[in-house]
Design a protein that fits this description.
The complex is a heterotrimer of chains A (282), B (249) and C (242). By secondary structure, chain A is mainly α. Chain A is 76% helix and 0% strand. In chain A, helix 9 (198-232) packs antiparallel against helix 11. Chain B has one domain (3-242): P-loop containing nucleotide triphosphate hydrolases (Rossmann fold). In chain B, the strands form 2 sheets. In chain B, strands 6-7-8-3-9-10 form a 6-stranded mixed β-sheet, with helices on both faces. A 4-stranded antiparallel β-sheet of chain B has the order 2-1-4-5. In chain B, helix 5 (124-133) packs across helix 6. Chain B is globular, with a radius of gyration of 18 Å. The termini of chain B are far apart. Chain C has helices at residues 2-21, 32-45, 52-86, 91-99, 102-113, 117-141, 146-153, 158-192, 199-209, 213-241. Chain C has 242 residues and is mainly alpha-helical. Chain C has a single domain, classed as MetI-like (MetI-like fold, Orthogonal Bundle), CATH 1.10.3720.10. Chain C starts with a helix and ends with a helix. Classes of the chains: A mainly alpha (282), B alpha/beta (249), C mainly alpha (242).
Amino acid sequence: MIRVRSVDQPTLRDPAASGRVFFVGLFVLAIWQMARLTEFDLLTLFAAFTDPAPRNFLLGFFPPAHSVAFLTLALVETWRTVAIATCGMFIAGLIGLPIAILLTRVLSLSAIGQPQFGGAVFSGFLRRVLRSLMVFLRSVPELIWALLLVRVVGLGPTAGVLAIAISYSGMLGKVYAEIFESVDPLPTLSLLNQGASRLQAFAFGLLPQCSDELISYSVYRWECAVRSSVILGFVGAGGLGQQMDLSMKMFAGDEVCTLLILFVLLVSFADWASQALRKAWE
Amino acid sequence: MRVELQQVSAGLDPAQAILQNFSLRIEKGEHIALIGPSGAGKTTLLHLLGLALAPHAGQVLHGDRDYWAARAGVRHQYRAQVMIAPQTPPLPPRQRVVTAIQAARLAYMGFWASMLAWLAPRDLVEVRNVLAEFDLADKLFERVDRLSGGERQRVGLARLAWSLADLWLVDEPLAALDPVRARQAMQVMTGLARQREVTLVASFHQVELALEFFPRVIGLREGKVFFDAAPKDIRQEDVAALFENEKGL
Amino acid sequence: MNARWVALFSLLALIVASFLSLDLHWLVFFETDSVQSMGRFVLEFMHPDLQPQFVLKVWYASLETIAMSALSTLIAACLGLVIAFKASGVRPLLNLLRAVPELVWASLLLIAVGLGPFAGTLALALHTTGVLGRLYLEAIENQTDGPAFALRAAGASSAQVFFFAQLPQALPQLVSYTVYRWENNIRAAAVLGVVGAGGLGQMLSFHLGLFQMNKAATVIAATLILVALVDSLSDRIRRRLG
């Protein structure tokens, strides 16, 4: 938009200028409101470095707790974290795999030849239901599952294992199904046409083609599960997280430091293990 | 001010200096055209003159001063006096033409002044006038990636015209322009340079235009001066020999 | 071939050892009172509390949660830009910020600044800075040099080169990363509250503690709606960019 003010003193207006000013204003307003809502207060933050309780907690970090008793306890909890993640993933796989098989259209018997009216509609309906179920399982954050389960089965690793199992089964089911769909359907279809059962067609036609991808994804998810299980520990689901929560509540900075170090080591180890496993499988 | 290269060795790759033992003298306000086959060292020479490339050996003197021997801060401050217009117009795709052009004077603005200039660009009429010289007045607020290749190249030249440098180093400014536009751009560029008494060194593939508009033409071949003369003293055979073997390598 | 068997065997060993070493209460599901209470919970869950007073509280908690996620992402984006500009020797710090999960940061910060959404916002900001800082750094490092070189050669300062050449080029990519992190942060903000960092999470933890399943159901529903809203908004923004 070019606006000429007068013949001898023409001026131009930047068409984007008013828009920019408006957005800057809106932005400032939004930040101000958000700071209010979140009780953002830098003074409180600075006070943290001077108040005795948080200050001593922070200073207590060094040296990290290294008594044999504590280290043993910490290592046991670290193992339990891995165990929770592994059990959870295993169960998630047990649930996710069959669901993925059911979802794979290629394996649908009703797809061979003329689809029977009833068969096709029913299996389509079943598929939609299963998909929605898995979306639901995936969308609810694990922590919420864990919170609920702790109320039902009590504190401890059971809640953690189940929380991981439930939410990861949704993820695994979806991705397994996608992997199955992406595979060349020909070997599977020919097996079905020969009269093989669905499971035989799956095991001998589909599975061999994508076992690498399946393993790769599952191991990657296992790594995520290890991290999740630490977090779930904060609501009482056992393992390293639960111990960290306890130590923090006791203001034992040195213990928290050791546990954090162990956590970082654990995550690095899980990363290494998953790389090694995936490489070994190729 | 006068620029001088004294026995300079330079090149992007330290192991293989394109220019070796190279000497050149440019007086204030001179207009020089660089021609020569690809790989002859035209871009290297321009970057050397523009303090964008340090020599491995020899001296680059601007007004009898070697800025590579000076402190980095002093050297960087001097860069405001020199403007390189690269072969590919250095315009961020999503930026608007007005901002891209005004960026030519960043060295003359403090940081916060430049931020303010981005928010609320000033001197809009003057910028548009510069664009008008290159027939781009209506593209003032357009986004760079919505322009054609030729238009972008002309914006690059307009940016050069907007700068306050007194040494212009232009790398292949006509590559994306059709013959009519190319001639136009040449006229405007050399005209403005003469008007502001700017020292101009430009490289070209369009030999005829170079010979027509520049009083001094240097032919570069394999990092050496093949000829350095006024157009009337350059023969067809010299030009042919300069580019010999360029096609069909 | 050998490597595969070793891998398979160690995997199986891991799984078996895991199950054996944890004392899992499978039987809980088959005890009568727990089945009864689970049934009761599920029933209560089906009837979320929709009384206006309570919905208002949930609404306010949702605003708090969204503010936490948005503000922390913005802070992280600004710090990320500073980091991308400075660019040297900052990677170990970024890795540390990223490695520690948001919830752990939140628990630590609670000790420093007390209960409430401030701790949650700071925790998310720290963790996200680690993530975005690294992404921004790489996006800017991977750019083509042209405009930055030209501005530098013309005497512009490093900061000017950053804002007038490097940033405009990388901006679509940076915004895309930032918006994607916001998607993650809204989920994180919703659950950080369980350790006391405000928002919907704190409400959920509170009502679950009192076994008020109907109220918890409302809070969970609000969380899912909020997450879906942010997801779709972020989708639209990213599509407009790409």
